[in-house]
Specification:
By secondary structure, the chain is of the alpha/beta class. It contains ten helices and eight strands. It binds 1,4-dihydronicotinamide adenine dinucleotide. The site of 1,4-dihydronicotinamide adenine dinucleotide (NAI) has 32 residues, from helix 1 and helix 4.
């Protein structure tokens, strides 16, 4: 296969000062993309800031013969990050929403601050960056987004109510950007990575950290950003050399009388509701209406 390159493409990678973002930024730059290395430079729990974190990565890319510019804004100021791409490189073709923090607490102990800060960085941050970029991509008729979710978002995880809520919401955002972008040449997909990073140092032991390289996630992120990739609105789990697609599954379900039925009727069809024989894999809201329309009890 021919080498996949990103010549004449401008990529914004948020949270590119460490871990996965750093790895994504270096890979895209090595393959010809002009890269905005965004990173606030704060702690894993979102405190503080340090411009030198993004600057060091941009310098490393430029020293290696690539083209990068550092940006130290928070993703909550997403417009500034996209403006940085426009000012330095004249456009934006690729956005990898990757910046993240953790404020883990069991749900009954979770403070408003723990909730709000995680929401601000993960979900609002991705919204602000993506909306600013989407406007330019629509006009240009080309764009690629990668959102970063987590297994904690897809499946739930103890102590991560704030994080898992925002992480799954990012896939919701991606799916709608995919729908709205389709006619404009803009695609959006979601990855749920697993990698040894400073963020995971809080929940992974050292042995697991060493086994899981961020470099084993970035090739998928890069492929999803490439013009040859047709995926749109999809979700992938990735880590340690494993890549898998995750999708919705719907049982055939049970049909009751739409005019009215009782909880006892629900109990009676419960096994049928939960039976995944001949399950389908819905991909749009229209399929919900179609399933409802097949109710034999509809007059
Ligand atoms: P990391 O802590 O190594 O890197 C995250 C970067 O985001 C840091 O450099 C940090 O300074 C930056 N950042 C934080 N808040 C920011 C803000 N407001 N604006 C700009 N930059 C900000 O973490 P890691 O593991 O590389 O995580 C990257 C993404 O992958 C995160 O969204 C995380 O939730 C997600 N993820 C990571 C997993 C893993 O196994 N490492 C598992 C599932 C998801």
């Amino acid at each position: 296969m021919a080498t996949l390159t990103f010549e004449n493409k401008v990529a914004v990678v948020t949270g590119a000062g460490n871990g996965l973002g750093l790895s994504h930024a270096k890979l895209l730059a090595a393959r010809g993309a002009k890269v905005v290395v965004n990173d606030l430079g704060g702690s894993t729990s979102g405190e503080g800031s340090d411009d030198t974190v993004a600057e060091a990565v941009a310098r490393e890319i430029n020293d290696a013969g690539g083209e990068a510019v550092a940006n130290g804004d928070s993703v909550t100021d997403g417009e500034k990050i996209i403006q940085c791409a426009l000012d330095n490189f004249g456009g934006v073709d690729i956005v990898i929403n990757n910046a993240g923090i953790l404020r883990d607490k069991s749900f009954h102990k979770m403070s408003d601050d723990d909730w709000n800060l995680v929401y601000e960085v993960h979900l609002k941050g991705a919204f602000k960056v993506s909306r600013a970029a989407f406007q330019h991509m629509r006009e240009k008729g080309y764009g690629r987004f990668v959102m970063t979710t987590s297994a904690a978002g897809i499946y739930g995880n103890f102590g991560q109510a704030n994080y898992s809520a925002c992480k799954l919401a990012l896939h919701g955002l991606s799916q709608t950007v995919a729908v709205e972008g389709r006619a404009k040449g803009v695609k959006s997909n979601t990855i749920a990575p697993i990698a040894g990073s400073r963020l995971m140092g809080t929940v992974m032991d050292e042995e697991a950290m060493n086994r899981l390289s961020p470099a084993a996630v970035s090739p998928l992120a890069a492929w999803l950003c490439h013009e040859d990739c047709d995926a749109n609105g999809e979700l992938f789990e990735v880590g340690a050399g494993w890549i898998s697609r995750v999708r919705w599954e719907r049982s055939q379900g049970a049909y009751l009388k739409p005019a009215g039925f009782d909880p006892e009727d629900v109990a009676e069809v419960w096994n049928q509701v939960n039976d995944f024989t001949d399950a389908t894999h819905p991909v749009d809201t229209g399929s919900t209406m179609q399933a409802i329309g097949r109710n034999p009890n509809l007059s």
